[in-house]
Fold each of these.
Amino acid sequence: MKKALIFGIGGFVGPYLARELQSNGYKVYGADTRKEEESIKYDGYFQCNILDKFSIKKIIMAIQPTHIINLAAISSVGQSWKIPDVTMRVNVNGTLNIFDACLLIGIKPRILLIGSSEEYISCNNQIDEKTQINANNPYGISKVAQEQFAKIYREKYNWNIFCVRSFNHIGVGQNNSFVISSWCKQLIDIEKGIQDPIIKVGNIDVYRDFTDVRDIVKAYRLIIESNFASTIFNVGSGISYYLKDILEFILSKTKEKISIQISDEYLRPNDNKFICCNPSLIKEKLKWEAKYSILDTIIDIINSFK
């Protein structure tokens, strides 16, 4: 029996990944900091902090998972600038706590770690897995460090530790601290009369690769089931969208007259101008393709806020 343990299951991606795994024959167990989760959807749920070594060991010992996916993270670049020390502890030390628990218990589950396009150097071309690593923010740096530890443990203990570098992904349920969810929520708040007819934005003169979260979690499953533990895969659509065009599309879904305001709150230091995934490797090796239209996904997000 395949038993998957998802740390950080209460976040945006967790429920989508749980459904993807359940529909492919897994028992799914979740762990998160919340006291209660909708555990009826899972085969078991545990409250824990990824920095609590004892709790991590206790959970892994109880479940004896065949697969572990670590989604527990500080996942916002903007937030990572505000709390760089916490970002490093959660994203790096949290991962090491999972590794060390498995060592102490004496099991070798397949482990999937989630990296980011933020690990790469800023460039004006599609990013493939051979592009230079040179993270320029605390979040990206934490993910580079996580991968290095994965490499060490993979080689020293002959473990199947899989690493992905995900590009931007969106969908219903994403925290509105992320750009598209933020704009969609502001739009609906304006329509409801609880926000002035002004959408606050950061730098919209940039290009980003967006993928529907349902496509992302399918890629995660294909990767952790594969024989490519030593191969790092980029996961993204291969299409880079101009944020100004995305904003105009969102504004086209209302009859309200709305103005745009650049806000320091949403501006990031060292913001990359252009980010676009080259997904050729995962397409070739695992036959993965992005299936969902991002414009349809944005409409779904707008409707969810309604």
Note: Residues 175-209+239-275+292-305 form a domain with the UDP-galactose 4-epimerase; domain 1 fold (CATH 3.90.25.10).
Amino acid sequence: MAEIRQARAELDEVIAEIQQVPGFEDFLATPTIEDVTDAAVEVPLVYLTAAEPGGLALVVSGHDITDVRLDGLTTGAVTGVAERFLAAHAAYRSDREAAGSDWSSCLRTTTDWLYGEVMGPVGAVLAGRDSAVLVSGGLLGLLPLHAARTADTTRPTGYRYVLDDVAVSYTPNARALTAARAVVAATRVRADRLVAVADPARTASRPLNSALVECEAAVAAFAGSPPPLAGNGATSDAVRAALEGADVAHLACHGIADLDAPLDSRLLLAGDDDLRLRDLLAMRLRVRLAVLSACETLPPGTELPDEVVSLPTGLLQAGVGGVVASLWAVPDRATAMLMIEFYRLWRHEGVAPVEALRRAQRWLRDSTNGEKADLYRHALDTGATWLPPRAADDLLLILEFQEQTQREQEDLTAWAAFAYVGA
């Protein structure tokens, strides 16, 4: 205990020194109620916490604070749900074909539980709101709160999800959200240069066959942007140098969330290169949005569950306004379709990024194979700039041979992994 007290005293001294640096006066300082209420003026903040004998949600809208008792959100219940979730995903990541059915079943039971015990009661308080920002502490940060669901026979899939009613984003805390909004405000007039990374050449990783067409569609949304960094050219040095001059970043590559050592969570680049969270924390960026179109780029660590340490929060700390990231291993072609629709809505239709992601997920989930094919065929025939011809050909090649009335991507595994962090 004496050693712990000494280490704590040394840490406090270092924090105090950092707070003397201009611009870092609030570094790791205890947030005030004014920090929270100021951040909740535009959009409600929802604080979620599990406890014994029951959990609690605080819905903050300006100076109005509503508490919602969540009797089923106990520490034990969350631990059990999170452990089953992580075990099922680990099996799926090791062998998608063998464990795919179990993983899909786990997602269904998880999102059913999340609606009944957490997001259903919270949603009743948020009724009439267009959007909300979730601050989910502990192991809840591992779970897809935005995809919590309840049965609804009027919906195409037979279920209504939280994101059908409200655009959900996440933030580690109120101060991080305020800082992210400042980055967005500073970059709004110049967010026109995108840097894309497509399927870096990696010996031990399976190729991402749709990554290049996905990145080409992202580049097409930002006139004058350079071609994607791909294959052997997507080294750590090249990616870091490109990020420093980017307004928007799109990284279509493999990712690994190290839940025991979250500072080692990383994106896999060319050769044996990695871009780790600890590397991102050392960078100073001014990026409007970073899209991590990779597997499991959102989960925080589990060693210190009250500390939100993940790739998205590291990017926010490095100077990124918003981050799109995934909670689990995602399918290649479905992700490409999701991202192409996201950029179409954001850049070509003028929809805000948080809402664009929400609409893209609902479209991917609810549209049939035939409806998707019709959209791409029309874009190809009319020369639409949002869909490069190679992307259209790649997607149509598969869609035209599938059952046209089927909703191929309605399962949670295909569309629900991605979430929005920041502003």
Note: The longest helix spans residues 96-125.
